Here is the input.
Amino acid sequence: MNEKRYFKIYCKQHVLNGQNKYVLLFDLIDQQIVFDNSSIKVELKKHKFSTNNFSSDINYLTKILLKCLNEFHSEKTSDLRMKQNLITIEILFYKGLYEECLHLISKTKRIKLAEENKNLLSDLLNWEKKCVGYSRGLLGAIEVNNQLDIYFDDLKEKKIITDLYYKSYNYKNIIGKISIENLTLEFETAVIKPLNKKQFELKTLQSNVFYNLIFANYYKVKNEKENELIYLRKVISIYEENEEYKFENPLDFISIYIRIIDINKRKDSPVFYTDLEKLKGFNSIISLQNKVAEERIFLHSNQLELEHLLYINKTTEAFILLDFLKSALMQKKYNVEPYYLISTYYLFTAAYISIKNFSLALKYANTILNEYQFNQHPKAYIQAEFLNIVIHYELKNYVLVLKFINQLQKKYRPNFRFSYFELEILKTITKVSKNPHIVNEKVVFTKLKNEIFEKYEESQLIYNNYLKYIISKTLIQ
Here is the structure.
């Protein structure tokens, strides 16, 4: 049974002449793409329903819908089951049924994954303290109250681990904006040292997940992909060993798998497709957030496979997949969030640049810049602006190139740091664009290439697309 069916069954207890006003109102709203109250009122009148209190009817419908959703999903997760029991416990308490409360409290503590939510467990303990106090005396209440210290300690540890995880994630997100050495030093000072100062018990699955992700992020910052992969697979093992936790946190599980596949996308190895099929298969066994999960899996699996095919130079297969992805997005089969659409169109732009189809590359760069906003995906949006400049440079639109570079520097200098490669390419493009008939393009890009090889070890430059572009400019005859 789905949510709509449940709502309609619930409303059947309030029927007038074979038709429930709120079911009709729901159906009329559900059929609309854009809400139009005047057309709804016309239909209500056709069915002999008054529209004098239309706003009140809408508010009451909302109240019923929320109540139905609460009932429909009341058993879906461990947290929801605990919350439902807490409501029942409170009602029983005020009716003076203390022993029944204590029985339900004991039952609630045994719910699978109950230990994951220390806040709800402390609420449970507070009700236990009250019930014991009223039914068994003060000494029993004191004994229960003393147990709260354990939960407070657990909550404190969970908060520390979570704070360190968030810091680690922030450092992961600024890779390329400062040198690996400085970023690693900052990471070790702000995250690793505090983490090593204390022996953590890691009593919850979430704390275990975050602990391992901190190290995955650390090795991501250090560009040690094999070590990053070790910790990501440890996280996957935690999910696999705790099926209920995995099903209650599907988007987190998906995001970890995406990181694993992303690491392997550059290799021509069967491991890539083994992991990709596992990710796709997860979609068929989830019930929570299934629509969002389906969209994420569809989009990311196709994006990753497209990048993989481009990396291993299977260009024909790559563009067959690209056309399939374009078609799916045009049909609006999936309600994709702007963040992920921007990422997809950025990938299309880069793919068309790789085959020197600059007109189509420009089309998708312009789609990002004209149809979306910077704050919807800052990193990809700025990278689209960067690629827009590269495209116009390749099309020899030097006046536009200089104009866009000037705008870019004014717009983002205070708040956004370009990577070393982006800055150096922009500097080199600027040199050529100012004097295209005087400056030798091959010479200036060769100089840049040599500077890069002096600055970085070869292992750090594998799969660097910016370097590939620079090298391509040195091969011009």
User: Anything to note?
Assistant: The chain has a mean pLDDT of 87. The radius of gyration is 29 Å. The chain has 24 helices and no strands.
